[in-house]
Amino acid sequence: MTDIPELTLAKLRDALRAKDVSAAEAAEAYLDRAEGASALNAFLRIDRERTMAAAKASDEKLARGEGGALEGVPLGIKDLFCTKDVETTAASRILQSFVPPYESTVTANLARDGAVSLGKLNLDEFAMGSSNETSAYGPVINPWRRTGKDDKLSPGGSSGGSSAAVAAHLCAGATATDTGGSIRQPAALTGTVGVKPTYGRCSRWGIVAFASSLDQAGPIARHVRDSAILLRSMAGHDPKDSTSINAPVPDFEAVLDRGVKGLKIGIPEEYRLDGMPEEIEALWRQGEAWLRDAGAEVREVSLPLTKYALPVYYIVAPAEASSNLARYDGVKYGMRIEDRDIQEMYAKTRAEGFGAEVQRRILIGTYVLSAGYYDAYYLRAQKVRKKIADEMNAVFEDVDLLLTPSAPSAAFGLGEKTDDPIQMYLNDVFTVTANLAGNPGISVPAGLDGQGLPLGLQLLARPMDEETMFRGAYALEQAAGFTARPGQWW
Amino acid sequence: MSIDEKTVAKVAKLARIALPEERLAPMTHELNDILNWVEQLQEVDVEGVEAMASCVDAVLPLRKDALAQDETGGGQPEAVTKNAPRTEDHFFVVPKVVE
C-alpha cells in the first residue's frame, strides 16, 4: 500500500487522478499524522468530519472524471484565511470564537480546484512575528532539531504552523502569507519551499489584514513543483480586491524544465552582512556555482539602499496595522471586556485581546501617523520605499533574477530572540525588500549547517515574472538535491 | 527624536489600548529602541521623491453601481451580526454613549 504522506504533492495529485489512491485515503492518512503531531502545535483546529466529507465529495468527482487541478489533495490553511463556518482567529485572543460567514478568495480558489482542507494552522498573532512565539495559542515547534540535541527550535514566522506542518508531512502543502518575509523565512528554517508571489497576484479578500500594501498570500510546500502547482490554483484576478492584478495566471509547472541557460543572475553585494554565519555565505557561493553550471550568467549587482528596507518596513507596516486593527473594538466581532463607559470598553478589550507585540506595533503605527510626526516618519518612509523600489526595478533591467540567502541564520531556539524586538525583526533582512517593491520571491532548501539544520536560498524576480523565478528555483533544487528531513521525535 | 512617557500615554489613548501604569516605562523604552533604529532613515535624501503607497497602479477600478448579489451584498443582517458579542434584533449593542 502507498504511504501517502511520503508522496510529493504532484505525485499524490497524479495518483488521485489515476485512482491509485482515493481522496478519502489521502485525507485519512494526513489526518492521522496531523492528529499525532500535537507536540508540534502546528494545527490550531482539525475537523476530521468536515475533512472526510470533503474528501468523499472529491472521490465522487474523480469517479465522474470531473476532478479539478488539486482534486482530493489535503492541505493545511494558515489561520489568517477566513473560512466559512470554521473558526478563524489570526492566533489572537481578540478573535477567539470568530466564525466567518464567508470564505477567503484564495481558499475558495483552492476548493474550486478540489483541494481538501485538513484544518487551520498556527501563526504569529495577526502574522506579526518571525518565530511563531507571538501566537496566543503558544509557539509552533520546529520538527528539526540540532544534531544530538533536543532543544525546541522555532519554525520561523509568521507562517510557522504552515512551515512546520509541511516539513513534518502533516499536510501535502499549506497556504501562508508574507508581509515582510513570513513565507520565505519559515520555509528556510524548516527545509521547505516558500513562495511570495508578486503583490496583487493572489487576492487579499478574506485574509485577516495586517499591512495591506505589503500582505500577499502564497504556498509553502516540500518541493518547487508542488509550490508551482499550488500557486496556480491560489492566484487569479478578484474584483473584490481592488489591488488584485487583472492578468492571466500562467501554468507555472509547465516552465520548470526550461532551465536557466542564458539567464542573468544578480548577486547583491549589500546582502553580505557582517556577522553572517560562514556557512550561509558558503552556501550562497555554492548557489552561484550551481546556477552558473546550469548555464546562467552570474554577476555582482549593487543595491545600496538595502539597509533602509527594514526601517522603512517598521514604519509602514505598523502604520497600516494600526489602521487595519482599529476594527477590533469589541462591538462587531471577537471578544469584549464589558464596561459601562464605551471608551473604557474599547481600551480594556484591546488591552486584553491583543498580545504584547501587536500592541507595540499598533502604538508605533499610531505614533508615526499622528499629527506632528506624520511627515518625519510615515511620509519619509514612503519616500524611501519609492527609492528602494526604483533601485530594485533598475537592477532588474540588467538581470533576470537575484540570488540571496533567505534568512540570516538557521532555526533558533524558542525564547532566544524574544527579549529584543529589533533582533527578531532582523530575520527579515533579506526578504523585506520584495514586499516593499512588490517583487515575487521564493526560498528553496539548499543545504544543512554544521548543526544539521536546513538553510535556504532565495531567488527574487521581476514583478509578474514568477515563471523565471520558478525556472531558477527548480534548477537550484535539482542541483542542491536536498533530501534531508527531520527525524520523527514527536 | 525620542518619545517620553507622556506621549506614549497619549498614543495609547489614541489607539484605544489601556496601558497600565507599570507598563508605561517599559513600553516607552521598547518604543524608543525601535524609533532610534528607524532614525537612520533621516540620512536618506528624499528631496523631490514621491511617496509610495502601493506597488500596483493607483488607478482604482470602478464597478457597476449595483447591489452585489454575493456575500458582499446587503440584506444579510443575520450574517453581519452573528459574531457580535452583544446584539438585539440585528443591532449591535454598546454601552450608552449619549447622556
Describe this structure in words.
The complex is a heterodimer of chains A (490) and B (99). Chain A contains 15 helices and eleven strands. Chain A has an eleven-stranded mixed sheet, with helices on both faces. In chain A, a hairpin with a 5-residue loop joins β10 and β11. In chain A, α2 runs antiparallel to α3 and α9 crosses α11. In chain B, β1 and β2 form a beta hairpin. Chains A and B meet through α9, α10, α11 and α12 of A and α1 and α2 of B.
Total DSSP E strands of chain A: 11
What profile does the largest beta sheet of chain B have?
Answer: 2 strands, antiparallel
- Taken together, the total number of domains of chain A comes to 1
Q: What is the beta-strand fraction of chain B?
A: under 5%
State the secondary-structure class of chain B.
mainly alpha
Helicity of chain B, as a percent range: 25-40%
The biggest sheet of chain A amounts to:
11 strands, mixed
Write down the CATH topology of chain A: Amidase signature (AS) enzymes
Counting copies of identical and different chains, the oligomeric state is heterodimer
Q: Helix proportion of residues of chain A, in percent?
A: 25-40%
Strand sequence of the main sheet of chain A, in spatial order? 1-3-2-4-6-5-10-11-9-7-8
Shape by Cα distribution of chain A = globular
Estimated radius of gyration of chain A: 21 Å
Instruction: Tell me the fraction of residues in β-strands of chain A, as a range.
Output: 5-15%
What does the radius of gyration of chain B come to? Answer: 22 Å
Question: What is the spatial order of strands in the main beta sheet of chain B?
Answer: 1-2
User: What's the CATH H-level homologous superfamily of chain A?
Assistant: Amidase signature (AS) domain
- Runs of chain B in which pLDDT lies below 50 for 5 or more consecutive residues are none
Q: List the uncertain runs of chain A.
A: none
